[in-house]
Design brief:
Distance between the termini: 44 Å
Helix content: 25-40%
Number of helices: 4
Radius of gyration: 16 Å
Number of strands: 12
Order of helices and strands: HEEEHHEEEEEEEEEH
Largest sheet: 10 strands, mixed
Strand content: 35-45%
Structural class: alpha+beta
Length: 210
């Protein structure tokens, strides 16, 4: 399947996850996000869901999370060290490489991910960024990084009716970190990582408004 087709398939998969309430088990809850999980149908790991409401307009939230070269994500997201667009396939579809720093007291070494990413906007104002892993000739595995794989994942920025300065952020994370990690490390990393994502994003959108 071509890259644009894979991106569309990932976006459709996220829409299905959004509509499917079955099998989710809560694993972490803070004042900013409720995190739940269920076994992934894509790989031998878990699909995680984050649900929270941010104190900013959908446009400001999108400004912070949109997957573009020179975007704000690397400035506030502790799990994104570098983000680069390898190839722009269209105005809304691109091949991107993301690198992450070490985590969990360096038990998880730096990772790299190569994904096809699509951005969409729907009639109700909802904005979606969806991604899934892909191979690209300009992105062979790099030394000093373990190649990880994202399966259909992404973010929905959903307007809150009657509240223009609030945004429901629905996220799905489905990542094979690669390498040889104890399952207990992986299972503890993602819920804390997702809660950190919401906490840091909340600070970023407040700073953007200021």
């Amino acid at each position: 399947m071509d890259c644009a087709g894979r991106a569309e398939q990932a976006a459709e998969q996220l829409r299905l996850y959004r509509r499917d309430p079955d099998g989710w088990r809560g694993c972490r809850s803070t004042g900013e996000v409720a995190v739940s999980w269920r076994p992934s149908a894509e790989f031998a790991g878990n699909l995680y869901k984050g649900e929270g409401v941010l104190p900013a307009s959908p446009q400001n939230v999108w400004e912070c999370i949109k997957p573009v070269a020179g975007g704000l994500r690397t400035k506030w997201d502790q799990n994104v060290k570098d983000f680069e667009v390898i190839e722009a396939i269209s105005d809304t579809v691109s091949i991107c490489r993301t690198t992450t720093p070490s985590a969990c007291m360096r038990i998880i070494s730096p990772r790299e991910f190569v994904d096809v990413v699509v951005m969409k906007q729907y009639e109700d104002g909802t904005m979606l960024s969806a991604a899934t892993n892909v191979e690209h000739p300009l992105c062979p595995p790099q030394p000093n990084f373990v190649r990880g794989f994202n399966y259909p994942c992404g973010c929905f920025c959903i307007p809150v009716p009657g509240e223009p300065n609030r945004t429901e952020l629905l996220t799905f994370f489905q990542t094979d970190l690669g390498g040889y990690l104890p399952q207990t490390v992986v299972d503890s990393f993602f819920p804390s990582s997702i809660s950190g994502f919401y906490s840091n994003l909340t600070k970023a959108v407040k700073a953007l408004k200021a």
